[in-house]
Amino acid sequence: MNTSLLELDRVNTYYGDSHILFDVSLHVRRHEVVALLGRNGAGKTTTLRTIMGVLSPRRGRIRLGGKPIEHLPSYAIARMGLQLVPEERAIFGQLTVEENLKLAALTAPQAWPLDRVYAFFPRLKERRRSGGKQLSGGEQQMLAIARALIRDAQVILLDEPFEGLAPLILRDLVRVSRELAEQGRTILLVEQNVVAALSFSDRVYVLNNGHIVWEGTPHELRSDPALMKAHLGV
Amino acid sequence: MTPATAVPELLLAVVLIAAPFTLPYAGGSIDMLQRILDWGIIGLGFDLLFGATGLLSFGQAAFYGTGGFVAAYLLVNNVIGSVWLALLIGTGLGGLFGLFVGVLAVRRIGIYFAMITLAFGQMAYFLENSPLSAYTGGENGLPGVPVPTIGGMRIEPGIPLYWVLAAIFFAGFVLARRILHSPFGAILRAIKENALRTGLVGHSVPAYKLAVFVIAALYAALAGGLLGVFQGYMPPDAFALDTSGQLVVQTIIGGVGTLIGPTVGATVWLYLHDNLQLIPGVGALWRLILGLIFVGLVVGLRRGIAGQIGAWLQRRMSVVERPDDAAPVDAPREPAMALPMIAPLSRADADAPALCAIELSKHYGGLHAVEHVSFSVREGSIHGVIGPNGAGKSTLFKLLKDEVPPTSGEVRLFGRRITGLGPARTAQLGIAKSNQLNQLFLELTVRQNLRIAALARSRGTFRLDLLRAAGSIPAVERQIEAVLDTMGLAHHADAPVHVLPYGEKRRTEIGIALATGPNVLLLDEPLAGMSPAERVTTRALIRELAQSRTLVIVEHDMDAVFELAERITVLYDGRLLADGAPEQISRDQSVQDAYLGGLHEYEPA
Amino acid sequence: MPSLPLLLSQAFNGLALGTLLALVSSGLTIILGTLGVLNFAHGALFMVGAYAIFVVAAATGSFVVGLLVGAVIMLAVGVMLERVLIRFFYDRPHEDQILVTFGAAIVIVEAVRAVFGGESQRVAAPDWGGGVTQLGFLIYPTYRLELIGIVAALLFALYVVLYRTSIGLVVRAGIEDARTVGILGINVRRAFLLVFAIGVVAAGVAGMLYAPIVSVDPDMGATFMVESFVVIVIGGLGSYPGAVVGGLIAGEILSITSAFNAAYSEVMLYAVMALLLVVRPQGLLGSEGRV
What we know:
The structure holds three protein chains of three kinds. By secondary structure, chain A is α/β, with parallel strands linked by helices. Helices cover 35% and strands 27% of the residues of chain A. Chain B is elongated, with a radius of gyration of 29 Å. In chain B, α3 packs parallel to α5 (110-129), α10 packs across α11 (261-276) and α10 packs parallel to α13. Chain B folds into two domains: 7-240, no CATH class; 355-596, P-loop containing nucleotide triphosphate hydrolases (Rossmann fold, 3-Layer(aba) Sandwich), CATH 3.40.50. In chain B, the strands form four sheets. Chain B has a six-stranded mixed β-sheet with strand order 10-11-12-7-13-14, sandwiched between helices. A four-stranded antiparallel β-sheet of chain B has the order 6-5-8-9, with helices on one face. By secondary structure, chain C is mainly α. Chain C has a single domain, classed as ABC transporter involved in vitamin B12 uptake, BtuC, CATH 1.10.3470. Chain C is built from eleven helices and two strands, in the order ααααββααααααα. In chain C, a hairpin with a 2-residue loop joins β1 and β2 (138-141). Classes of the chains: A alpha/beta, B alpha/beta, C mainly alpha. Chains in contact: A-B, A-C, B-C. The B-C interface holds B 50, 54, 56, 104, 108, 110-112, 114-116, 118-120, 122-123, 126-127, 130-131, 133, 241, 245, 248-249, 252, 284-285, 287-288, 290-292, 294-295, 298-299, 302 and C 32, 38, 85, 88, 93-96, 98-100, 102-104, 106-107, 110-111, 113-114, 118, 222-223, 226, 229-230, 233, 237, 261-264, 266-267, 270-271, 273-274, 277-278, 281, 291.
């Protein structure tokens, strides 16, 4: 049965008085990789933060596996299997790589053994005793994703994972993302880098000024350059 | 804040005159009255420091003690004969000590500030107790302080000395009120609301904080000197931590920000102290009861007695309407008064572009947020800056206004280098910025918000104008009216900003930048969060503003940027990707790639 | 110039005082770092510890039992204070937090005064701590030596908890970024309660151990509290190693200065703090950007 694992139903989020998300509805099925695209300021990060409980929607519903989560605190949502990999990565600089991973695994019911995570990210194994703040941008991004993996998250929310990375690291990371997708992980990916995102997603939503303006497949999007330029380009 | 009337002064005068005749019947005494007034004097200065500016000091006892012991020492040892002169010297030295501590303390905020003042208060106490005990009498204090004379006539302790104290207190109150309602006072309150924005519009926040800290020290030192005089004795515990702590408790109980609050609190404290002690059983518990009341006030009310009365009075006297969310957006119109723009202060080079970035770089450790960016902005034009997320646009804006120092490179305003001057000085030179996320003075009215900005350039980064009224500078008021008109905020000018709908808050945000009368205006996502109708109005406004000044805009609304800008700079990954006219940019393939994903190496084979 | 035995004796006193300051300041700094609250009631809690052992040791005749039961009492006090008062202030401005803990301190001190009176009490040193010990040419009170040992052990235990256990991991991560800790599935508020309780117990146990050396009265905590503020400024806000190093340095400054001129010992400490604020405001081991 391929029903929706994660579902947003007419979600409206505000920052104080500022209305950021307008009736945002989307769904992600099990084993799907869904990309949420749009220029910055469109509300993509706000969407992920709302799902993760960092922000509370003023109206609308969010369901994980059928259960409503829109007013739960972040830690409860994390324990239900949702994991956000934040845009700013939010690595604990004062902790070592291994401590970062152990911390993430603390409340996971079926945490991965460390070795399995290291098999995915050999570079992290080399740096396991380094302090978080000594890692490069790409390594920090890997660690951030690794924290989600070690929790065996049901749904991974990736917030602009490809931003600000050198081309070599970028290639590595896209490869990792593809592997995760092939393994059947459920991913909601927010990205500005359209090409990278389209290279491994199954379905696409486009967000513009807080409204969902388009939904379809990567192929459909690529074959309509006018559409791409209007909502995503310049 | 409503314009100053003379009502509080009149009321105070009446109370001061009636008190010595009525209070003794209610369980008070002349001695208690004098102690209340003495606390009231320290409290006036402390309320300017904490109530108005938000700086919580736990060390006022240091200055209280300094003023008191210097004056007492000079008098007791016959170094100086005149009590008035001794008080003056004591107050002055207390102020000097305040200057010293202030310089170390005011660059820190919140926690650090409280700790530093606490530590210096303690240090002064220990100094007084041991090393300097030859001068201060150590644990015994200094007895034998004489009473003052006026025209050769001694002022006896008791009622005659009370009148002197009352007169000094009254004068201190009048002065404190003038300060609060002056431009200086308006800036103090702005600092409490939003210190960052206060600095951005051109005021030197550390200078103002230091000034009010010294003023508070002066009040405290004067009160210390007077303590010795009316008691005839200078007690060692003037320096104690308890003294600073008692001041804080009294201020909260009486009401922060009311100037008279500390006096009211002192009345409560001393009344309970003198009277409850006599009741058997209750006696020792009065401080416990007071402590519980204090905690209760901090948890719940927080306005204190005087504050609560004041708020109740205000509610009865004015009608505060809450503007409804559906208020129509004012159409743009030609401003009734032309928006004055102060001419650039200095032009190194008559042909220089309005704003010029030269090889600007900003590195945060290994992260190169901005890398070798150079571009120039023609005077009178609208210049757009675009780029995908993480491209470095916000950092660039901060560099343009010198909010952060660049790792290398420089910025020139009309040919003059402004890198290294800091955001307040650059604002004074004519470059202002409005922020993506509103940075407003929420508790103040729209008019007051604009006044803080408008006061900046006419007064320089710091001016000690303590005595004039804040709204009394005609040029400033004209500027405010012009901005209110242009931004369509006139009908809500006197509403506190926090009740306004989002669109008007956004217009206030831009209005604050505009009110500094800038030659170059940086707008960071001015259209963020606006409805389609508001976008239309704001775009028209931007076009209008460009007729009299230079604009640089960061925006994601591509239609707006391409419509408005004469020239567009594209940033990608911290570097300049393209720079040219809109048509060029939209045809540039590398720009399209940057937005859509650039690198093709991982496209599916 | 003071004699060598005097200097040595003062150096040991500095160690005793320093380790106690380190313990008190550790509690203060982890509360500040994790919860963001500057606990102005910390000195009062130190005093409560001293009274706790006064009561229990007198009732049971055993110092050790007094320590253990006293620690439990402090734990209860800490939990109660956090649940009833402190936790409502996490989102309020710093000034409000300072004011409410300051008020709590007044209430605690006055309540103790109401129950026990204002006269100073004596707490006897334990039997195993009586007398003096010969250290080379120096004769030194035994209890103080044992105190150094006990507190050093406690500081080590705190280190183990912070750096080798899961809860310590949560605390250290929480000091850096409490929100992300929540995103990783951990109920941070519950961790806050634990951190506050640990901090209170640290202050209270220091008070218990200090009690036999001084006279116990309701106001004994004030000076210690201000000194612990100075310690965390020297060591760096939110840094446990900083509190330990800062505490030892402060203890030595106080004790050794008083060997030269007792009148200046306190002043010297504040002068050092002032100097550090100018030269290195984030403290010896603190991180920049916290100022």
